[in-house]
Specification:
Blueprint lengths: L5 E3 L16 E3 L3 E2 L12 H10 L3 E3 L7 H9 L10 E6 L8 H12 L4 E6 L13 H18 L3 E7 L3 H10 L6 E5 L9 H9 L3 E5 L11 H11 L3 H11 L3 E2 L6 H6 L10 H8 L1 H5 L5
Parallel strand pairs: 3-4, 4-5, 5-6, 6-7, 7-8, 8-9, 9-10
Antiparallel strand pairs: 1-2
Helix pairs in contact: 1-2, 2-3, 7-8
Bound molecules: NADP nicotinamide-adenine-dinucleotide phosphate.
Length: about 300
């Protein structure tokens, strides 16, 4: 049995009319680019070339990663890169929530050297430089939602989504009655599974696709030797592969990041044997054993 290469996106997120085709599905494996290239002055070309040759069809970046221009330069140097075959995701920085959203989209288009962005996410629900409980955050979010919808109608983005939203931010979307975010990108791995249950349910009830970031805890899980050996034991294979296959088993797309070409290839797990439902259940329960973050 092979794993799905894409996941569907909700019809409610596909606005029309739009001069460009809406994004109707999302690749199940994307290449994460946080902290890449490393070192900062290195080229991204070998990594992106490897990712494309291996089969990755999504690249995940963000304004705050400050690597959009480097990604554009790297893609320009890759002979078999075809813009229409790659889903480019980027994210609105916290300093641009609200009235600066349109400027941010235009800057991303310029830096990425593309005519449209496939998926544009609000990176964080809060704005920079405001007290955490200020009511201004909500007003600024609302302005960003409206700007993103307009950008979709203008053909600058194919879909928009959210990232790192808590339950009360999601309820606010219900109150506004907004046609939608297509994707919620959030940190999900076995240690943040039970604690994210309510947020995940809110999204799945509305068909909003869940994209899991930091499947390896941003590299921190490898320091939990006990957890990683249990992962290898339950999965009966490499613990990194197990973590990615566990996410797939729940219908999350994944964004593994590595600065090493051999790992970029290894993390492309679409052809691997899926975990059994018993293995998935065992891993689901590990959060309480290894202490989860409360959300
Ligand atoms: N929306 C958000 O707020 C948000 C937040 C965080 C991340 N993200 C997105 O999600 C992507 C992935 O998350 P992440 O960057 O936090 O990291 P991650 O993918 O959870 O972990 C990356 C770390 O794991 C190591 N690694 C990768 N593959 C490995 C393998 N097969 N074996 C052993 N070690 C391996 C990497 O080391 P090497 O580089 O040395 O291989 C690196 O230290 C990001 O790059 C970004 O695109 C989004």
């Amino acid at each position: 049995m092979s794993l799905p290469s894409t996941f569907p996106l909700p019809a409610s997120s596909q606005l029309s009319p739009s001069p460009i085709p809406p994004l109707t599905s999302i690749p199940s494996i994307g290449f994460g680019t946080y902290r890449l290239p490393s070192p900062r002055d290195a080229s991204l070309t070998p990594l992106l070339q490897t990712a494309i040759d291996t089969g990755y069809t999504l690249i995940d970046t963000a304004q705050v990663y400050r690597n959009q221009t480097k990604i554009a330069h790297a893609l320009r140097d890759i002979p078999n890169y075809q813009r229409s075959q790659i889903c480019i995701t980027t994210k609105l920085g916290m300093t641009h929530l609200g009235p600066k959203t349109r400027d941010a989209i235009e800057t991303c288009l310029k830096e990425l050297q593309v005519e449209y962005i496939d998926l544009f996410l609000i990176h964080w629900p809060g704005a920079a430089k405001l007290p955490p409980h200020s009511i201004k955050h909500k007003e600024l979010r609302r302005e960003s939602y409206e700007t993103l919808q307009q950008a979709q109608r203008d053909g600058l983005i194919r879909a928009w989504g959210i990232s790192n939203f808590q339950l009360h931010h999601l309820h606010e979307l219900d109150d506004i009655g907004l046609p939608g975010p297509a994707v919620h990108q959030m940190e999900i791995h076995p240690l943040y599974f039970e604690s994210t249950a309510k947020i995940r349910k809110w999204c799945t009830d509305r068909g909003i696709h869940l994209q899991a970031y930091s499947s390896f805890g941003g590299g921190e899980l490898q320091q939990r030797a006990d957890f990683m050996s249990e992962m290898a034991e339950i999965g009966g294979r490499d613990p990194y592969e197990t973590l990615l296959l566990w996410a797939f088993a729940h219908g999350f797309s994944i964004l593994p990041r590595s600065a090493h070409c051999d790992r970029v290839r290894k993390n492309y797990v679409l052809d691997c044997k899926p975990l059994s439902s018993e293995q998935v259940l065992q891993i689901d329960g590990l959060g309480s054993k290894y202490r989860e973050k409360k959300m």
